[in-house]
Each structure stands twice: as structure tokens, then as C-alpha cells.
Design a protein that fits this description.
Layout: E1 2-6, H1 10-21, E2 25-29, H2 33-40, H3 51-60, E3 64-67, H4 70-74, E4 79-82, H5 97-109, E5 114-118, H6 126-140, E6 147-151, H7 161-166, E7 171-174, H8 179-192, E8 202-205, H9 207-238, H10 242-250, H11 271-284, H12 290-302, H13 305-314, E9 322-326, H14 341-351, E10 355-359, H15 364-374, H16 379-382, E11 385-387, E12 400-403, H17 415-421, E13 426-429, H18 436-441, E14 445-447
Parallel strand pairs: 1-2, 1-4, 2-3, 4-5, 5-6, 7-8, 9-10, 9-12, 10-11, 12-13, 13-14
The structure holds nicotinamide-adenine-dinucleotide.
Nicotinamide-adenine-dinucleotide binds next to helix 1 and helix 5.
GO molecular function, one term: UDP-glucose 6-dehydrogenase activity
Protein name: UDP-glucose 6-dehydrogenase
Enzyme class: oxidoreductase
């Protein structure tokens, strides 16, 4: 099948690479010339395990191409995926300017029947707006090809995106109930058939329900995290261990083990903005989603929990202190720094006069950009931040080590070496990587989330 993907980000590039890998002819279109330049010259603009190999293989086989030429990308295509960003607008709603710009572009170029696939996470009613934007452009050029807009939200996780795309738990597709909709449904079935072989994972529904499903899923996951974080804070007060509690409740199949880890808050490009967007959708309808209000509020507070522990230990004035930070990306397996809890922690430490030395296995470049933007206009604070290329060097002469992301390389470090480098053997662990008794035995003062010991 001839397919185009609009937007070469985390979702677009993975979708393109995986669809090309099963034999489709895939064209990737992006307005970012730098990104297309990197891709054309054999590079990958994002970190996603396994992606580089698939892109290289399919580019070499002539099944995957990259362009900034909209006409080339959008003519003679059976399906065109919209996979552009939908960041938060000022009021928290999803900013649809990129989606609608893509729709206009589609309307300017398509010639024959085209299935337009909304893969971006978009609020209920967006497919209708995409359809109108395409129709407006078609009318302007007096063209009349048939098209259908389907909703096909993406559920991949950064860091495991290839596996998620190629072995999906479900493929949600919202189609219209008309003739083009029926045709689109067939196209989507054919396109996804390589990933749908041993059992039927395709869930067809109406377009609005498909759009809603993505927000409902992310809101539920964010709720589980904030729920556990709030319980973790109480567990600390009453002397219980949230990790034991997690195992205790996770064993109930009605609850399950996933997404029950207490920590220093969720971040990333999806949960925070999708929760906000769903809340705004509700407000537009005159409803308040009280649970999600609390989920957001708890998460904002949780990003401060380690700061509070550090202040409780060292005092409000941190001007003669140095902190080593392990982990900058919002989660392991990605270089994505969007809404990462590390940004809140680092800004708060610098604000109090501390020096910070930080390390991340893959997101140093992204982190440099994100932190420089957070600290714009505060060159004096930025000067107290150093990004260090060696994991252990971060701890050198630091008053404490702070762990913000649960990268594998942090799970079983050389504790003796760590202890020797730190000025004082103190660890603040935002991801509960170690066992408190073991840390005590090793001679560390260990502060974690929702567990006894340390503080
Ligand atoms: P991203 O920011 O990594 O990439 C978006 C890309 O779209 C950029 O390369 C940008 O240059 C390009 N773009 C913007 N406007 C364009 C236009 N008019 N024409 C062509 N290209 C354009 O975004 P992402 O993280 O891949 O997310 C894309 C969508 O998928 C969002 O709606 C997001 O919520 C959703 N989503 C993301 C994830 C994830 O883990 N990142 C998971 C599921 C769903």
C-alpha cells in the first residue's frame, strides 16, 4: 500500500518505519527541514530503541522516503496518517493548529480516494474539523476526490515503541458509517493485518468514541500513578512501606500490577497534556472532572516531594551544596524531556543556590536544550548546572545523589565507588530503586518515596 505519514516525531517515525517493514511504500513528510535532512542522511532525530535499524533497512530497500515536498507526499496515496504534535494550549485544551495545518495540506494535494488517519491524540470532534478543513481546500481548487477521516489513536510507549506498534494489545479504529467510511475500514484492516494475525485485535467503533478512548486510557493511567503517590505520602507518615502495599494490592487481578509505582511524579509528552485536554473538554461541556483535577494537582505536588525532602535535610539555603542527579528523561528508554520531573527538581535546587551535576544515558542533548529554555533569563543559575558525561562523576564531591529516572544502569551501581565519591553518603531516590535495609547496611542515608527510613 502507498502510505504517507505527516509528522516525523516519536509516533510518526515509528509508524512509518513499522509500516514500511511489512512491505508498504511509506513516505514521511515533515515541515521541519532539519529533521528531514537528518533522516535523509541516515540519522535519526530521536532516541527510540531499535528504530535506527528498521529505518535504515527500509530506506535501503526503497520502501521508506523522507520529504518536505507536500505534493510529492500526498498524491497517489491510499492512506495519509496525521501524526503531528497536539501540545497544550493556554487553557489546557489540545492545540490543534498542527493537525489542521496538516489537514489543509492534504486538501490541497489529494487526487483520488484517500483514507485520512488521525493518529495524533485529538479531542472528540476533531475528525469533523479535519474533514471540514480538507473539504474547504478541495472546494477552493474545484477538486472532488472521495476521502474518509478515521480516528486511529496510538497507544505506543516511548522506549518500547517498536514492540508496542508491532505487537499491539489493541488497534482502535473509529470509522464513519457511510460508503467512504466502509471503504476506509477495509483499508485499515488491510494495513494492520500483519499485526493482527493470531487474534483479532482491531476494535472498530464510531469516530467520537475512538477519539475519546485515547484520553480515557491516559487519564486512567495517570490516575493510578497519582493515587499511588498520594498513598505513598501517607504510608511514610504512618510507617508503612508503599512497595509492600503495591505488591499486596497488585496481586488482586481486579487491580493488577501495572502502573502502581510510587515515584516523583509523571511527566512526558502525553499524560500531563492529555489529562489537561480532557479536563478542558469537560469544562467546555459544563462539567468538571473532579477526579482528574485531583490527579493533576497531586502530580504537580509530587514533582516537589524530593525538593521538600532535600530542604528538610539540608535547609532552605542550598548555596554551598552540590547535588548529583541521575536521570533526566521523563522515563527510561527515551530522550524525551517534555514535562520531565527532573526539570522541576533541577530548577528548584538552582533556585535555592545549589550547584547541580546531572547525567542521563541518552537525553543529554535534549536535556541541555530543555534546561537552557527553563532557565532562560537566569544565566547565573544556568552556570551552576553542569551536564556530566560519566555516570559516576556526577557524584564526585556532591552532598547527595538524587535519582529521577529508573534507567537500568542505575539499578545496581558500584555502591562502594559511589560512596567514595560522595561528600556524604546520602541518596534521594525518586524511583525506589533500592531496598532501604540494604542501603542502610551499605552505609547510606537513603530517602525514597513512601517507605520507612531516611526521612
Ligand atoms: P513530536 O513532537 O515528536 O512530533 C511531531 C512532528 O510533527 C514534528 O516532527 C513536527 O515538525 C511535525 N509537524 C508539525 N506540524 C506539521 C505539519 N503541519 N506538517 C508536517 N509535519 C508537522 O510528537 P509525538 O510525540 O510523535 O506525538 C504526536 C502525536 O501523537 C501527539 O498528538 C501525541 O499526543 C500522540 N501520541 C504520542 C505518543 C508518544 O509517546 N510520544 C504516544 C501516543 C500518542
Amino acid at each position: 500500500m502507498n502510505v504517507t505519514i505527516i509528522g516525523c516525531g516519536y509516533v510518526g517515525l515509528v509508524t512509518a518505519a513499522c509500516l514500511a517493514d511489512v512491505g508498504n511504500d511509506v513516505c514521511c513528510y515533515d515541515v521541519d527541514q532539519d529533521k528531514i535532512g537528518i533522516l535523509e542522511s541516515g540519522g535519526i532525530p530521536i532516541h527510540e530503541p531499535g528504530l535506527h535499524e528498521i529505518v535504515a533497512r527500509n530506506k535501503a530497500a526503497g520502501r521508506l522516503s523522507f520529504t518536505t515536498d507536500a505534493h510529492r507526499a500526498m498524491t497517489h496515496r491510499e492512506a495519509i496518517f496525521i501524526a503531528v504534535g497536539t501540545p497544550s494550549g493556554e487553557d489546557g485544551s489540545a492545540d490543534l493548529q498542527y493537525v489542521l495545518a496538516a489537514a489543509h495540506e492534504i486538501g490541497r494535494h489529494i487526487e483520488g480516494f484517500t483514507v485520512v488517519v488521525d493518529k495524533s491524540t485529538v479531542p472528540v470532534g476533531t475528525a469533523r474539523r479535519v474533514r471540514a478543513a480538507i473539504a474547504e481546500q478541495l472546494a477552493q481548487r474545484g477538486a472532488n476526490p472521495m476521502f474518509s477521516v478515521v480516528s486511529n489513536p496510538e497507544f505506543l510507549k516511548e522506549g518500547a515503541a517498536i514492540e508496542d506498534f508491532t505487537r499491539p494489545e489493541r488497534i482502535v479504529v473509529g470509522c464513519d458509517d457511510d460508503v467512504p467510511g466502509e471503504r476506509a475500514r477495509d483499508t485499515m484492516k488491510r494495513l494492520y493485518s500483519p499485526y493482527n494475525r493470531n487474534r483479532d485485535r482491531m476494535l472498530f467503533m464510531d469516530v467520537r468514541s475512538a477519539e475519546f478512548t485515547k484520553y480515557a486510557a491516559n487519564a486512567m493511567l495517570a490516575t493510578r500513578i497519582s493515587f499511588m503517590n498520594e498513598l505513598a505520602n501517607l504510608a511514610e507518615r504512618v510507617g508503612a512501606d508503599i512497595e509492600a502495599v503495591r505488591r499486596g494490592i497488585g496481586s488482586d487481578p481486579r487491580i493488577g500490577y501495572h502502573f502502581l509505582y510510587a515515584g516523583c511524579g509523571y511527566g512526558g509528552s502525553c499524560f500531563p497534556k492529555d489529562v489537561r485536554a480532557l479536563m478542558q473538554t469537560a469544562r467546555d461541556e459544563g462539567q468538571t472532572l473532579r477526579i482528574l483535577d485531583a490527579v493533576s494537582e497531586v502530580n504537580a505536588a509530587q514533582k516537589q516531594v524530593l525538593v521538600d525532602k532535600i530542604v528538610a535535610r539540608f535547609g532552605e539555603d542550598l548555596s554551598d551544596r552540590t547535588f548529583g542527579v541521575w536521570g533526566l528523561a521523563f522515563k527510561p528508554g527515551t530522550d524525551d524531556m517534555r514535562e520531565a520531573p527532573s526539570r522541576v527538581l533541577i530548577a528548584a535546587l538552582l533556585e535555592r543556590g545549589a550547584r547541580v551535576a546531572a547525567f542521563d544515558p541518552v537525553s543529554m542533548k535534549e536535556a541541555q536544550r530543555a534546561l537552557a529554555s527553563d532557565l532562560r533569563g537566569r544565566p547565573e543559575a544556568l552556570a551552576r548546572l553542569s551536564l556530566v558525561e560519566d555516570q559516576m562523576d556526577v557524584a564526585s564531591k556532591a552532598d547527595a545523589l538524587v535519582i529521577m529516572t529508573e534507567w537500568k544502569a542505575f539499578k545496581s551501581p558500584d555502591f562502594d565507588s559511589l560512596k567514595a565519591r560522595l561528600k556524604q553518603p546520602i541518596v534521594f531516590d525518586g524511583r525506589n530503586l533500592y531496598e532501604p535495609p540494604a542501603m542502610e547496611e551499605l552505609g547510606f542515608e537513603y530517602h525514597s518515596i513512601g517507605r520507612p527510613g531516611g526521612g
